[in-house]
Amino acid sequence: MRLVIGNKNYSSWSMRPWVLMRACGIAFTEEKLRFDFSPDSPFRRAVAAVSPAGKVPVLLLDDGFAVWDTLAIAETLADRFPQAGVWPGDANQRARARSVSAEMHSGFSALRSHYPMNIEASLPEVGARVWAEQAAVRADVARIEAIWADALAMSGGPFLFGEFGAADAFYAPVVMRLRSYGLPVGETTRAYMDRVVAHPAVAAWIADAVAEQDFIAEDEPYRQHR
Known about the structure:
GO molecular function, one term: glutathione transferase activity
Protein name: Glutathione S-transferase family protein
Oligomer: single chain
Distance between the termini: 39 Å
Domain GST N-terminal: 1-85
Keywords: Transferase
Organism: Rubrivivax albus
Number of domains: 2
Structural class: alpha+beta
């Protein structure tokens, strides 16, 4: 299988299936496309060639069949590799893991828009300023902290539903945002973040993102503050 992704420093959507597949031991090759959203750019042409949605990530199966959207990719992987641990084995925990992953998939727009993923950056001053100004951001983070605390209490950890799985992969970009912008979180959240960052699959993505050094202006709205 081949996974088509964008820049690792910025592409939160690409991060999800990449770290999930690495964590679950699912073999794939990576095709990274440099973000360029100008009309008829190489990025746009390459993505359009494999997905009518025109966005990354895209998972190309063994026969070349394309699957896009991170939830669809996760479910396809669960179907094809039922023993890989994409979702929890327990039915109730599996349903909860899908629920919180879907909530991440469709929600938290304030956090996303005000704190774009930028793994290489350290922007605590931006984080503090936006935190003070944006009640919607504070509400998003409070809800995320509640989700994590509830899941960890139900499963016993170390990750949201025991072993690292799809829910952790879906929230890994949130961990990146909380770290980059130095947002205030509780001890349970901080400890979970530390475990996510230390996971080999996530650590590998972070290392690649930091090494990239490919800065794209439209993905760096706060660079002037650095």
